Amino acid sequence: MDSISMETGFIIAGILFTLGLTGVMIRRNLIFVLMSIEIMLNAAGLAFVFAGSFWNQADGQVMFIFILAVAAAEVSVGLALIILIFQKFKTLDIDQLSKMKG
Amino acid sequence: MQIFIELIVLLPFLGFLILSFFGKYLGKKAISATAVGSVGLSALFTIILGVKLLNEPDTALFASLWTWFDIAGFNPQIAFYVDSLSVVFVFVITFVGFLIHLYSAEFMVDDDGYARFFAYMNLFVGSMLILVLADNLLLLYLGWEGVGLSSFLLIGFWYKEPENAAAARKAFIVTRVGDTAMAIGLFMLVYHFNTLDIQVLLNNIPGQWEVDNPLATATALLLLGGAVGKSAQLPLQTWLPDAMAGPSPVSALIHAATMVTAGVYLIARMNVLFIQSPVTMTVISIIGATTLLVAGLSALAQYDIKKVLAYSTISQIGYMFLALGVGAWSAAIFHFMIHAFFKALLFLGAGAIIMALHHEHNMFKMGGLRKKLPLTFWTFLIGSASLAALPLITAGFYSKDQILWYVWAGEHGSTWLWLAALTGALITAIYTFRMIFITFYGEQKTVVHQKPGALIKIPLIVLAVLSLLGGFIDLPHNFGNFDLFSRFVTYTLPGIEIEGENLEWILQTISAGVALFGVYLAYLFYLKKIPMYNNISAKLPGLKKFLLLGWNFDGLYNRIFVVPIFTMARINKRDFIDYIYTGIANLGLFFNSVLSKTQTGNVRWYIMGITFGAIALITIMFTL
Amino acid sequence: MLTILFYLSATVAIIATFMVITRYHAVHALLYLVVSFLAIAMIFFTIGAPFIAALEVIIYAGAIMTLFIFVIMMFSLGTSTINQEKIWLTPKTWLGPSILTFILLVQFILIIIEDGNQASTFEVIEPKDVGLSLFTKYLLGVELSGMLLLAGIVGAYHLGKRKKNVLHRYLKMGKNNG
Fold it and tell me: Which chains touch C (3+ CB pairs under 8 A)?
């Protein structure tokens, strides 16, 4: 098998990360924002695995497992909060939730 | 002998202390007894001192209490020096003061501040005695300030009326201007002579400063500034008419007889310094001449009886300054003594009238009091005659005539000054008898409420006698040359050279004629009320108002000093220095308003911020 | 062979992710996201991390995305939402942020390319090695993740509970205060 250079991997992870960042910035629906955050987490994990495989160690994969656990916990709590927000504000517009302004 | 000197000064202060601390526990009789008694005892001791000095006129008595301080060889003492000049002043102060205290015992009897009044009066008498008895200029300045303070307290005695408080303040501030000049003069003296002891200075000044030395002129002019302020001469005369807001005894004692003559005393005492500067002497005589004309003309238009007397005081002190300026030292002091008698008499009489008519000050509302208040009328008439210098019988004639003679014939006199003084005499006669005719003759416009009692009548009578007989102690040269007074003070004051002695007869006749003519004019205008008077006074209302306001010096000073300062204060209300501090605060507020706009509460905005930050950080980290 | 697979799945992942952030309908976006995750799992597989590939499919695409879809279906967002999204997603909205992130990406790539290019062969790392490393070297991390997941469970349960309206006793009594 041909070898894949490490830069390629990181570039791919970088592209995915910036796509996720763009998604957070341009979408106003809370669901989409959360989705984009998941994309960013995943891209970070991808970078970790690449690095771990480059050094032929299991550490990268271990890190990805931790990230996975964190993402799971975060999604569950976040979705519960989104349900509560929807019940209270009747909208999922993130711009309406700006009570901390000033 | 020493103890008498100390007691003369200390007794009034003792009276002041007793009345200040225990005044509210004492009854009215006790209060007046303390006050009148202290001044009376001082008068008694003065007589003893006077007798001793009359026997040995070329000596001086000295009493030292303690050394005030000693710094770098400059050590003024608390010490009193009595010579023939000071004993004249002390006699006037204590004696006239005693009479006025007696008068006030009845005049102020209905007032709540009875004890306070007498406390202040005693404080005044004590300070004035320190002033004239001080043996060094620093102690004199202490007395100077003390009389200024007492004057302030007494003018504003009825302080609950705002005008009285304003008048007191005005008096204090205007004299302060003069006091500051005098203080600078004292500094110069200390700097050059390292002492303020008067006798030492009088000995050393001619040696160190020759005639027309600029330093001598400067120091003399500065001391003159102080004298001008305290004696209410041009240009610092604006406070005296307003000072009539105080009670009549105060006006009599302070603003007629004693405090306003402190300037005259200072110049007479420091005669050596002034002789070293002929420029200053000329300035003094010009100030005297102009002041007496300005004030005399102003008195012609006044309708408040006390204001007429106030302007008259300014004018008469102008005469004293004129005499000092031409070098007639003893004539000035003689006129001071006689003036104290008749001016105090006039003020006390005016006070009696005002009290009898229930605080009516306007002369044109009085009238016909000749029959109702006979004693007041006759004493007032005697005082006015003395003021107008009616010939031969009144004391004022002798003293004023002496001044006129020396102004004409002295080596520094001049014809112009003599003409000014003569015109002043005419005007004096007119306004004085104008006052008499309007107040005492004609039909009565206000009812007499109460007649004066014994304590008021006695001082009036005594002062009237003195106003008549006091002149006989110093007759002019052609009347017998009985110069008891001049010889008495000549041991302390220099004499005067005369040119052209033969003309004294003619000058006396002229001045007598002028005075009588003035009385006749007043009779025509105000008693017979000839139509020409109405024509003149109706055609010139502007002139009348101008004279009524005392030549509107108040307006002038308002325009020159007060308005610019108020304008600058108004411009600077925001206080540009404060801008620096508020500027820093405003800068903080500005940044706050800008930065708080970045807290939109919008999550996407924050993430954009984070992205910006990330870009910036990476750029910085990887390009350095 | 593996290299071609690698680049292919990378392309699919990137295109799918791009589609995620530009859809109007939430469910469409989620499905695209699932595709993206599966493509990434392929990438993991080609670089010698099969365990992680399996975990990605099972947990990420399987559990987390499913959770997402259920929650969205609960909201029952209708056509109005889709129209709303159309209105929100104008060029004015996405031009600025896109430029920013593009700059960030360019910087990122520049940094990565700067270092020397090192190609290497990828050896497969067995699940056994991962497990060993996880439970010996990173045991503490495992425990902590356990606690984190516990917190997540408790939080999600508590937030999802239907609450009764509780009034303060003063308000309940209907008296005037003070």
Answer: A, B
Q: What does the pLDDT look like over B119-140, one tens digit per residue?
A: 999 999 999 999 999 989 999 9
* Interface residue of B596, B604, B606 to substitute, partner A, most A CBs within 10 Å: B604
Question: What pLDDT score does C178 carry?
Answer: 46
Task: Provide the number of structural domains found in chain C.
Answer: 2
What is the distance between the terminal CA atoms of chain C, rounded to a whole angstrom?
82
Residue to mutate among A25, A94, A96, with most B CBs inside 10 A, is A25
- Which of the listed residues C107, C125, C143 is the one where a domain comes to its end? C125
The encoded tokens of residue B572 equal 């600077």
Interface test with B, best of C92, C107, C113, C114 (most B CBs within 10 A): C107
Q: Binning pLDDT at 50, 70 and 90, where does residue B288 land?
A: very high
Cβ <8 Å between C101 and B614: no
Full domain range(s) for residue C84: 1-99+121-125
Distance from CA of C14 to the nearest CA of B (A): 21
In this structure, the answer to whether residues C88 and C133 fall within a common structural domain is no
The answer to whether residues C86 and C149 belong to one domain is no
Q: Is residue C107 included in any domain, yes or no?
A: no
CATH number of A10-89: 1.10.287.3510
Residue A1 has pLDDT above 50, yes or no: no
pTM here? 0.70
pLDDT tens digits along B388-440: 888 878 888 888 888 888 888 777 777 888 889 999 999 999 999 988 888 88
Whole-number Å distance between alpha carbons of C118 and A10: 13
Other Cβ atoms within 10 Å of B592 Cβ, number: 10
Q: Measure the CA–CA gap between B240 and B251, rounded to whole angstroms.
A: 9
Q: What distance in Å separates residue B593's CA from the closest CA in chain C?
A: 25
Q: B101 with B154: CB under 8 angstroms?
A: no
Q: Is residue C148 part of a domain?
A: yes
**CA nearest to B348, candidates B106, B103, B125, B97:** B103
Q: Any chain B CB within 8 A of the CB of A25?
A: yes
Closest CA to A68 of A82, A89, A49, A91: A49
ipTM comes to 0.90
* 8 Å CB contact of C104 and B611: yes
- Given a cut of 60, whether residue A2 has pLDDT beyond it is no
Residue B51 is predicted with a pLDDT of 86
Q: Does C106 touch chain A (CB under 8 A)?
A: no
Residues C8 and C56 in one domain: yes
A56 CA to chain C: closest CA distance, Å? 7
Q: How far is the CA of B618 from the CAs of A10, A16, B92, B621, C105, in angstroms?
A: 16, 19, 99, 5, 11
Is the per-residue pLDDT at B538 higher than 80?
Answer: no
**Same domain, yes or no: C145 and C88:** no
pLDDT > 90 in chain B, percent: 30
